[in-house]
TrEMBL record:
Involved in beta-(1-->2)glucan export. Transmembrane domains (TMD) form a pore in the inner membrane and the ATP-binding domain (NBD) is responsible for energy generation. Residues 1-15 have a biased composition (Polar residues). It comes from Rhodopseudomonas julia. Residues 1-28 are annotated as: Disordered. SMART domains: AAA. The keyword Nucleotide-binding applies. One of its GO terms (molecular function) is ATP binding. This is Phosphate transport system ATP-binding protein. Residues 32-274 form the ABC transporter domain. PANTHER family: ABC TRANSPORTER I FAMILY MEMBER 17.
Length: 279
């Protein structure tokens, strides 16, 4: 991954314009920042010079037609593309200002800080308890059995699942309903204290009631976590996210407050996509 020099940030530009006598408020520093991110799968380029800020404690939706690169971009944020042999990533991505592609960075640690929830709920073939306890145990987050039990209970509570499973924690996670399994996967992600949660179409395999529960949960989680969600549902993007980024053919078309993106997008491709003309 190359570090690329870049032009002054918007924050710096704004700072230049501020009257000198007014104390400058520090501009909101993004939790994550992507600059000039390109991804190739072998010879095929899937992302072109993507610049995107991920604001802290907000939900940002990535939208766009199938194959436009949303999941590829999402996977850049916790280096999941490293697991794809033919994938090559260039550009610069930071988490709290730190280059996540730095050679000295521990990728396991990064993936604990930037957790991921996948399209299809994928609990381990273990008990509900073990699904949640596994991460904290391998990351050494609990000093003993009691503390581990507390982490499991708190994570299940935060994922809105505790009351439904508290009496059967030793039953298999795979025995839960699809929606419960997805909330279990969210509890598993939360259990290792992430700062950012990446969600790749987390509701696409769920029915409307389970979807509503997960959406409600996403809204609650925003208080403590930064969330990036890939979704095909315009309604879902509108319901859960404060900001929306529109991708098309590997390019980031535009990004802005969700209500603006859905009522007054500046790019015709966004307009066409949200009105169902393609995708
Ligand atoms: N593992 C891979 N190997 C080769 N090409 C890939 C791989 N993953 C994605 N691609 C290609 O990269 C491009 C972007 O795919 P990506 O899955 O990121 O798009 P997407 O917007 O998330 O699509 P969808 O909405 O259908 O999930 C597509 O052309 C896809 O075929």
């Amino acid at each position: 991954m190359n570090d690329i020099s870049h032009s002054p940030s918007a924050a710096q530009a704004t700072a230049t314009k501020a009257p000198p006598e007014v104390p400058q408020e520090s501009a909101a520093v993004p939790k994550m920042r992507a600059e000039k991110v390109c991804v190739h799968y072998a010879d095929k380029q899937a992302l072109f010079d993507v610049d995107l800020d991920v604001p802290e404690n907000q939900v940002i939706s990535l939208i766009g037609p199938s194959g436009c690169g949303k999941s590829t971009f999402l996977r850049c944020l916790n280096r999941m593309n490293d697991t794809i042999d033919i994938a090559r990533v260039s550009g610069h991505i930071t988490l709290d200002g730190e280059n996540i592609y730095d050679k000295s960075l521990d990728v396991v640690e990064l993936r604990a800080r930037v957790g991921m929830v996948f399209q299809k709920p994928n609990p381990f073939p273990k008990s509900i308890y073990e699904n949640v306890a596994y991460g904290p145990r391998i990351h050494g987050l609990a000093s003993g059995k009691r503390e581990l039990e507390e982490i499991v209970a708190t994570s299940l509570q935060r994922a809105g699942l505790f009351n439904e499973v508290k009496d059967r924690l030793d039953e298999p996670g795979t025995g839960l309903s699809g929606g419960q399994q997805q909330r279990l996967c969210i509890a598993r992600a939360i259990a290792v204290n992430p700062e950012v949660i990446l969600m790749d179409e987390p509701c696409s395999a769920l029915d409307p009631i389970a979807t509503a529960k997960v959406e409600e949960l996403i809204d609650e989680l925003r208080e403590n976590y930064t969330i990036v969600i890939v979704t095909h549902s315009m309604q879902q993007a509108a319901r859960v996210s404060q900001r929306t980024a529109m991708f098309h053919l590997g390019y980031l078309v535009e990004e802005g407050p969700t209500d603006m993106m859905f009522t007054n997008p500046t790019d015709k491709r966004t307009q066409d996509y949200i009105t169902g003309r393609f995708g």
